Amino acid sequence: xxxxxxxxxxxxxxxxxxxxxxxxxxxxxxxxxxxxxxxxxxxxxxxxxxxxxxxxxxxxxxxxxxxxxxxxxxxxxxxxxxxxxxxxxxxxxxxxxxxxxxxxxxxxxxxxxxxxxxxxxxxxxxxxxxxxxxxxxxxxxxxxxxxxxxxxxxxxxxxxxxxxxxxxxxxxxxxxxxxxxxxxxxxxxxxxxxxxxxxxxxxxxxxxxxxxxxxxxxxxxxxxxxxxxxxxxxxxxxxxxxxxxxxxxxxxxxxxxxxxxxxxxxxxxxxxxxxxxxxxxxxxxxxxxxxxxxxxxxxxxxxxxxxxxxxxxxxxxxxxxxxxxxxxxxxxxxxxxxxxxxxxxxxxxxxxxxxxxxxxxxxxxxxxxxxxxxxxxxxxxxxxxxxxxxxxxxxxxxxxxxxxxxxxxxxxxxxxxxxxxxxxxxxxxxxxxxxxxxxxxxxxxxxxxxxxxxxxxx
Length: 458
Known about the structure:
By secondary structure, the chain is α/β, with parallel strands linked by helices. It is built from 21 helices and eight strands. The chain has helices at residues 3-18, 24-40, 45-59, 62-65, 70-86, 113-128, 142-155, 168-181, 199-212, 227-239, 257-266, 287-294, 300-310, 313-324, 330-342, 346-350, 356-366, 370-381, 385-389, 396-406, 410-432; strands at residues 101-106, 132-136, 159-160, 186-190, 216-222, 244-248, 270-274, 282-284. The protein has an eight-stranded mixed beta sheet with strand order 3-2-4-1-5-6-7-8, with helices on both faces. The longest helix has 23 residues, at 410-432.
């Protein structure tokens, strides 16, 4: 998310920071470029105008223009205004009520509403140890109820299904009764969607709201729909009343205009964002971290949190220590690749690192992506334990067998082995230098404890 905007901002502010002194015309020129970049990212025009006015007003102040590092000061002002635009810094789900807390999920058809219901349920069960009940309120589309039932089974929670002739308000009332009677902490109500906003949809959502009095009314909006999502959010907020927004398909949206516009247009915080298709790929939307990613500052705290959830830190630390002693094996590399794959989309992971723009160019040059990582992992898995511990055994015949077993080519096997040798050598050299940094070109501490960069990335 925000790839295009990050790249543009990186170029604009890099030029600004290279100048020893700034005057008002320099700031005005930079703000014109920022304005174009935001509009190209599909940010709503009123939002862009207000943002530019506030940044310009603060940036042309005497304390900025006369400071020792005026370029850095302007970047900080832009960062702070982005946080204001996206804020509050973190708006979690409000569950501090007498249980069961009702979460009313609304949105258009195809926005990912049903999947998001399951993701929130999974998050509440796993992280907060809540007892969650799902309820399918879409009686117009039977497949929706079946989808929620399937997802509920995957999450490990009960789903209230509609019975013949039952209306959405009746299902919602029954779900809340079940929630109270059986001691559920949270009831998530999956309402019907439409291809477009209409009076029937709004009336139904409002009637359900009046029946259950939800603690949260969350709009599920597709980030890829851009300004349409902003219009949808404004209408739902006016007609039904929202307490927050959940953005889906954030991983597929390179522009980010919807996220940057929604908070300003509706006044409702973006609470969560879906960053992938898996049930655990739902993140808290934190304004300061998102602003940092947009400006290429990364989100190391977010990366460490993601690593803590998925990485076997103790095992990874042992691998790192062995690597620094020159004992890094292909088995260790395979474990590292598996850890990287568990953490999710590689582009998303690298987007959390500082200097993301330069790193992505480096990744492109090295041809490192999720497909490459999967192929490399398959190659190592196709080796015998002896081959992983002693790569010298890998003659031409064995390499041909490994390529066939992993569905790759001999050239890919050779490339991985070459990259492995480079990594092993780099790790050994770092150990001799006093462990100054595991990641070569990355600053010490840029990667989570025990984690190393993928092969081909320096």
